[in-house]
Amino acid sequence: MVTKLSFSMPEQPLYRAQGIFSHQSDSIDRRERKRPFGPLSNFVADQLPHCIAEIKASARPGEAVKALGRSINAMIAETDYEAQLLNLPQSEFGVAKTDIQYLVNCAYQMSAFAGLHSVDAELTVGEALRQLARVSRQRQPSIDVLSYEDMILTNPLQSDPRVYCLGSAGVEERDFCLGHQLIESELQSAIDALLALRDAVGADARQCLAVCVERLESANYVLARFYERMSPDLFGQFRVFYGKNPYKDRLGPSGRFSARIVAVSVLLIGEELFHQKPQFYMDVYRLSEYYPQGCIQEVFRWLSPDKGGSGLQPSWLEGKADFPKFATILPVIERHGSETRKLLASCVCALDQFSRMHRSTALKYTIEPGRPIVGVETSESVEAVLSQRLLMAARQS
């Protein structure tokens, strides 16, 4: 008996995507406040962009940045935010961690804007804020700078977004982050369908693959909005806040660190990707701390179940074992006919189109205007990083 699986087919991401980069408003409608830290969250959501604008307009930005740091640390000292942080439910903890990291990142980025020495930058961050960030990482291990997870996944973008800019630039900043969040939602639906195909006995292969194609095509639709509608000038205004940390050897939050793209890639083309682009896997393991930890550790468990998702480079990546084909859907596909293989090819094509669109968008908004790619190290080839998920066979189709 063939098991019939039912998947949620979310229409909201596509509906929401139609409104991003519309340039019809210069203010954000905060429909539902998400303020787990009370006054501190209020400050991040409502006041921080105004403070940044004042610093940028100040005749003495260095003093203004230091004053902002003292104000933030004094606010933290007034309440036992550490205890609050440890006792928040997980749904609220994510937003609270985002608030903390937005403050830390602001202190570093604006210190660099003002030309402060690293010692003064650390004083601007302050011990109270630094300790609060440390406690947040103890509860949920993550990189010690603003991460892709903070910026995209836990930022309450649909109702009460955290942004750094005012006016139209702030709306564009919200839309940039929201577009990524909508893409992540579509990718998760594709992952759910592929995992059902891989792991559920008697799963309807055609149904699972059809859902995957539809979700990947929806993600492509959202990404196309970036390429077609995003304002280069507004992008330039907010992107500076999400760059590499100017005082630490740390990369900025980047779509490169979407663990869900890694998961879809492993499930669909994992073995072929290993043979054609082993550097893709080497970089995922090498830079694993930048990815959302829950998802990337799950992928590592697929790839190295004997290591329990430890994130250690597996023996197959060193050529000492075969690639773990069971991490992918290929063993299931091999038991089906040509129609199923055609659907798989459609999924691979949709993933390739997504990677191509991401590459084209990065070229248009960052490389061609001469802006730095925040998720790429100085020693890396930008072209190689942007092409890591493109298969040679898919290019020719």
From TrEMBL:
InterPro entries: Trp/Indoleamine_2_3_dOase-like (IPR037217). SUPFAM superfamilies: Indolic compounds 2,3-dioxygenase-like. It comes from the Bacteria. This is DUF1864 family protein.
